[in-house]
Description:
The protein is α+β, with helices and mostly antiparallel strands. The protein is built from 5 helices and 4 strands; from the N terminus they run H-E-H-H-E-H-E-E-H. A hairpin with a 2-residue loop joins strand 3 and strand 4.
Amino acid sequence: YITKDITITENEAIDICSKEASNSIKQIKIAQIIISEVEAQNDQDAAIKAFLTKLSKHISKGASFESFAKLHSQHSSYLNGGVTDWIEVDNPIIMMLDSLMVNEVSKIYLTDFGFAIGIKLDERFVANNLNQCKEKLIYLNAEEFYSNWVKSLREQAYIKIYHDAL
């Protein structure tokens, strides 16, 4: 009960655990504009690709990807400019996005929600056993906290032990 609120932040865990890890996993953060349909077009796929090509050209010339994502993306990630959480680089589309330079616009690709363009925002390497390491760090912090708590109780308490009466 005393140590139930002991936590460690994700960044602290990544910093500490990645240093100790012998192998790590690459993760990237991306932003996407996903379009699933456009108005009154017979060939939806061609119209979507044409629209995304137009957006890509504007972004390549300096337009804000985030603003275009908020205006045009038809995926719920539009709320935060199309930015995703950290994604493990483990499939061909993510590998293609990983090969981009930071803020370089990707070619059009197919997602489960429609066609998309994306940009790579950041990359990092994390320990492949991050969750286990994080649990271990929380346990060690809780153990240290409990030890210090008991020590302070002992210092504050007035207890007389009668060895001869035992």
